[in-house]
Write a structure and sequence with these properties.
The protein is of the alpha+beta class. It has 17 helices and 39 strands.
């Protein structure tokens, strides 16, 4: 493996760009990334998604499915600048991968389909970037497709994303005849020959000069409205110089007040060089972003992006590979060399950095050190998890970790061979360690091992990874819900005598009990309900106190299995009203046994009902999808408790049986074209309708 020495340009912060590629599925993110690598000379052959030859989609599942699943980091050089690039997933199930990437990036390229414009997941990742205040430029891709239209795509950016698009290019040719662009800043035409890898710069075609002039004027007016210095020059001279316009575009991009829009066809390798030039010109370097903030000892600290500062880095991704456990770091300050020991600030554990790698997806180049502004992978740390801060032991600091969304879908996972059970659990724990949006737990009531994630595709990919990477034959099924049984109407004065004589000391216990429903202590949907209450009203010492406690223990034993289906019983009040003892044969064991069988008999004589777990579901959907979502909730036996309007969306609150929520994430995304989201909160239990309880 090659070893790369740091060159001076890699230490100069203003020559580094850390950016991500964001988009909806099939907008062309991975193809854009591949063409960037090809154009910069990092690769010598164009990788194609449909051929499974891409650098960033290197995982076997990504190539089989033709989509990006895992955020992949690559590095390349362009015009004396190092570009660290992360190709992020576009499917909603892997939004957490995007979240972790955005946490460590300084800028992004948002890719849009020239036919579809802003698609649902484009909107979602744009909002994620807004939350992290990540500057963006836009690339309208696939202009060679039938129906492609730059103006329509730009209009959707303006209307759906509520930003000001600043279009700096005019396409030359339409659809299959697309062959180049007019650079509106320099008023020059960039034309690519069929099959050519570079463009030829020429004068603007005669037939486009008037339109190019009109669009340049619109660009100047839009910039002047947002940028005070540009406005001053515009008013003084009725136009903007190229240098002024470029500087204003850079300022507006970095403040987020506007977004520069370029266009092209990544598949045909048209528009990639101008895109790279825009990355260098408009997106910030690590030196342009504010110092990172962290805490230690209850006080807030800042670390500037300076190699001379104490070392501080954020681990944003962990991946187990054949070469070792890779921990991906964004270095915010200081310098770290291979062989050094750093501190995991969250755990207080020292971790040795054995190797430092410049990452090219699944290929790596060894480097001697990493400095502020770098995105690298390290081998050596054994217990570092995504979101951990690694820092200099003498200058500890905790950086804010990426937020982790709560899992919304669960499946039951079990090994087909009982001998593989422990291996399966170890594999699942390892998965959850690498991907914080996965959760593994064992249901204490059903005994099932549950794997929870962000969607059905997310879980399908995770379980397939267990099969392929660990060679385990696993069975995936629908989780069972934990039912309960409760009283509707009890019995009074039930007499039970426990007499046993089989040689030696006998057993004798005589009790009389009343059994009645125990009302919940408060809360909606069973929240706050009491499971069991016991009291004794026996007078005259007919049942000694130690035997009363034994009766209560016996009753609790009986609550483990109810008469309807062997489910735990809840919501029961038992009153011991009378009893009798024997001077020799009575004992705590005898009264415990009597309590257990007495309550079982009482429950069989009572009117019982089956309960199912329910959850409060909060659904956020676009206004145009409210009707379909309400109908779907009703079909799932949901009870809507409220609805509020919020900026073009509706927030619906409903109580829904947990059993009806399996598969809901996929259904909701289908009904809302991926724009609907929901959260759940367990609220207790509710009676199962008679039509349903027969099949429970």
């Amino acid at each position: 493996m090659r070893t790369e020495q740091h060159r001076p340009l890699e230490s100069a912060l203003d020559t580094v760009r850390n950016l991500g590629i964001l988009a909806h599925v099939d907008a062309g993110k991975t193809t854009v990334t591949e063409r960037i690598l090809y154009t910069t000379g990092t690769t010598h052959k164009r990788g194609e998604v449909h051929d499974g030859t891409t650098i960033t989609d290197f995982d076997s599942q990504e190539r089989d499915r033709g989509i990006t699943i895992f955020a992949a980091a690559v590095s390349c050089s362009w015009a004396g600048h190092r570009v660290n690039l992360i190709d992020t997933p576009g499917h909603v199930d892997f939004a957490d991968e995007v979240e972790r990437a955005l946490r460590v990036l300084d800028g992004a390229i948002a890719v849009f389909d020239a036919v579809a414009g802003v698609e649902p997941q484009s909107e979602s990742v744009w909002r994620q970037a807004d939350r992290h205040a990540v500057p963006r430029i836009a690339f309208v891709n696939k202009l060679d497709r039938a129906g492609a239209d730059l103006d329509t795509a730009v209009a959707s950016i303006r209307e759906r994303l509520h930003t000001v698009p600043l279009v700096v290019q005019l396409p030359i040719g339409r659809e299959d005849g697309f062959r180049g662009v007019v650079d509106l800043l320099r008023m020059r035409a960039l034309v690519w020959a069929d099959g050519g890898d570079t463009y030829e710069e020429t004068d603007v075609p005669v037939e486009l000069r008037e339109e190019a002039g009109r669009r340049r004027r619109l660009l100047e007016e839009a910039v002047a409205e947002l940028h005070p210095a540009a406005l001053e020059e515009f008013c003084a001279g009725s136009g903007l110089a190229e240098r002024t316009l470029a500087g204003a575009l850079r300022d507006l991009t970095r403040t987020g007040e506007g977004v520069v829009v370029l266009c092209g066809s990544a598949y045909r390798n048209r528009g990639v060089e101008p895109l790279l030039e825009a990355v260098v010109a408009y997106l910030p370097s690590p030196a342009d972003v504010p110092p990172v903030r962290g805490t230690w000892g209850g006080t807030e600290q800042e670390r500037a992006a300076d190699p001379a500062e104490p070392f501080a880095a954020l681990a944003f991704k962990v991946n187990a590979t054949a070469t070792g456990r890779l921990t991906y770091l964004r270095v915010y300050s200081g310098t770290v060399g291979k062989g050094e020991t750093v501190l995991d600030a969250g755990t207080g554990r020292g971790e040795r950095v054995g190797r430092i790698l410049r990452v090219q997806a699944d290929r790596h180049v060894d480097v001697d050190s990493a400095v502020a502004g770098d995105i690298v992978a390290v081998i050596g740390p054994r217990t570092v998890r995504p979101g951990a801060t690694l820092c200099a032991p003498g200058a500890p600091l905790v950086l804010e970790p990426p937020t982790v969304a709560d899992p919304v879908v669960s499946v039951a996972v079990e090994a087909r061979r009982s001998t593989d059970t422990q291996r399966l659990m170890a594999a699942l724990v390892r998965l959850a360690d690498e991907d914080p949006s996965l959760a593994v737990r064992t249901d204490p009531e059903t005994g099932q091992t549950l794997l929870s994630g962000m969607g059905e595709l997310h879980l399908e990919v995770a379980t397939e990874k267990v099969r392929r990477d660990h060679g385990l034959d696993v069975r995936v099924g629908r989780p069972r819900v934990a039912h309960r049984e409760t009283l509707v109407r009890g019995v009074t004065g039930l007499v039970y005598r426990h007499v046993k004589q089989d040689g030696g000391a006998g057993q004798f216990a005589h009790i009389v009990i009343d059994v009645e429903p125990l009302e919940p202590t408060g809360g909606e949907g069973g929240e706050g309900e009491a499971e069991f209450a016991f009291r004794s009203v026996v007078v005259g010492g007919r049942v000694p106190q130690e035997y009363v406690r034994a009766v209560e223990a016996g009753c609790r034993d009986a609550l483990v299995e109810g008469p309807l289906g062997g489910h735990p019983v809840t919501g029961v009040r038992v009153t011991l009203t009378d009893g009798a003892t024997h001077s020799k044969d009575s004992s705590e064991m005898a009264f415990r046994t009597a309590g257990r069988f007495a309550l079982r008999e009482a429950l069989r004589a009572s009117a019982m009902v089956l309960l199912e777990p329910v959850a409060e579901v909060t659904v956020t959907v676009p206004d145009d999808a409210v009707g379909g979502v309400l109908g779907d909730l009703a079909a799932r036996r949901g009870r809507v408790s409220g609805s509020t309007a919020r900026a073009g969306a509706a927030v619906i609150t409903a109580t829904v049986p947990l059993a009806e929520l399996f598969g809901y994430a996929t259904r909701l995304r289908g009904r809302t074209r991926g724009r609907g989201t929901f959260t759940t909160r367990a609220t207790g239990y509710a009676p199962v309708p008679a039509a349903v309880s027969g099949t429970a």
